Amino acid sequence: MGQFYERVARPVLFMQDPERAHETTVLALKLLHKSSLLCALLHRLNRNSPPRPIKIFGLDFPNAIGLAAGMDKNAQFWRASAAMGFGHVEVGTVTLKPQPGNPRPRLFRFADNEALINRMGFNNEGAEAVAARLKSAGAHRFRPIPLGINIGKSKSADLSLAAEDYLGSFHHLADYADYFAINVSSPNTPALRQLQGHQYLPGLLKTLREANLNRARKLGLKPIPLLVKIAPDLNFKEIDSVLADVLDLGYDGIIATNTTVERPGALSRANEPGGLSGKPLHHRAIQIISYIQKATAGRLPIIGTGGISDPESAGRMVDAGASLVQIYTGLVYKGPFLPAQLARALAPQHERWV
Ligand SMILES: Cc1cc2nc3c(=O)[nH]c(=O)nc-3n(C[C@H](O)[C@H](O)[C@H](O)COP(=O)(O)O)c2cc1C
């Protein structure tokens, strides 16, 4: 089936400009999402029967493979993601205010290297609209797989007011989130990555943690797991500082990594500004995950993402210390059968240590 995608569907999609091809894909997935029956059927077909779900942050994940943030920015096709065989989906990045993102073109393919560069700039409909869509799709009652919601800073919000901005999104979206990913690592919102530094991160994380605990107390629910998504361009000292803040404030995990502003190897002459994803990112993502695993003695669950394109690269990430993995660019190059293939391939690996 993967061969059908690579030989027939991908060449047709790749005749289009990358963002048009993305929109075509989203349109197809939105159609699938609308048919609950078809989604349920495909979900059943694609579900490999795991002996036990993977339990992390108090959630049950049917398999280790998730859809990374950025593909379903507005929560338009999360049911279709479950149907494709994903074990979780992370929608977003959602910002408090709706925003158009950067001018086009802002997405570029480097097919020889199975890579993408994007400078989308958090184009999204805003937290209120995304919450309304999730509500009308019944996401407050039932989600077939864990739904992560990735939140980021509105472009117009000053860094000093970032915590309130994230908090607004948290309040709009909390009823629909199985976990929140706090995105402080996209390279395409000016100054966003500064939020990873000790000057800002503890304040931001504390504000969200307190809101989460208050909400849980008020509603008699468990707090929603909170994770922080980091950049691959941090050095080890900077990672230590993030880890200290994350552990100090009792956060539930780390997502490593976002896209890189570096241009490793064959991409050294790619001069489009933006974040690089796909195969050239893989080595750095693995390095960072191994580092976090060792630095925290495995105390902090890691969701690994960066250049996973086949069972070997997914397995490498799990071996480096990731409990779950996510893909985006791999899906563009390998197609919609990749998640189920990876989930099947990783099942025995997880079975060894659950
Ligand atoms: C076009 C595109 C848009 C992205 N948008 C977001 C985003 O909005 N928020 C986010 O946290 N990560 C975003 N990412 C990063 C991915 O979630 C992921 O961390 C990164 O691409 C590495 O995984 P990959 O190599 O499998 O693509 C985006 C990636 C791509 C390619």
Explain what this protein looks like in three dimensions.
By secondary structure, this protein is α/β, with parallel strands linked by helices. The chain has one domain (2-353): Aldolase class I (TIM Barrel), CATH 3.20.20. Helices cover 41% and strands 16% of the residues. The protein contains twelve helices and 13 strands. The chain has helices at 2-13, 18-34, 36-46, 78-83, 127-136, 162-173, 201-219, 236-248, 282-295, 311-320, 329-334, 338-353, and strands at 54-56, 59-61, 65-67, 88-94, 107-110, 115-118, 147-151, 179-183, 226-230, 253-256, 275-278, 302-305, 324-327. An eight-stranded parallel β-barrel has the order 3-4-7-8-9-10-12-13, surrounded by four helices. A three-stranded antiparallel β-sheet has the order 5-6-11, with no helix packed on it. The protein has a two-stranded antiparallel sheet with strand order 1-2. Helix 8 packs across helix 9 (282-295) and helix 10 (311-320) packs parallel to helix 12 (338-353). The longest helix is centred in the middle third of the chain and has 19 residues, at 201-219. The protein binds flavin mononucleotide. Flavin mononucleotide binds at residues 68-70, 73, 93, 107, 116, 118, 120, 122, 150, 183, 186, 229, 258-259, 277-278, 281, 305-308, 327-330.
- The gross shape turns out to be globular
Architecture (CATH level 2) name: Alpha-Beta Barrel
Bound molecules: flavin mononucleotide
- The order of strands across the largest sheet is 3-4-7-8-9-10-12-13
> Separation of termini?
30 Å
Strand content: 15-25%
Query: Based on DSSP secondary structure assignment, what is the total number of beta strands?
Result: 13
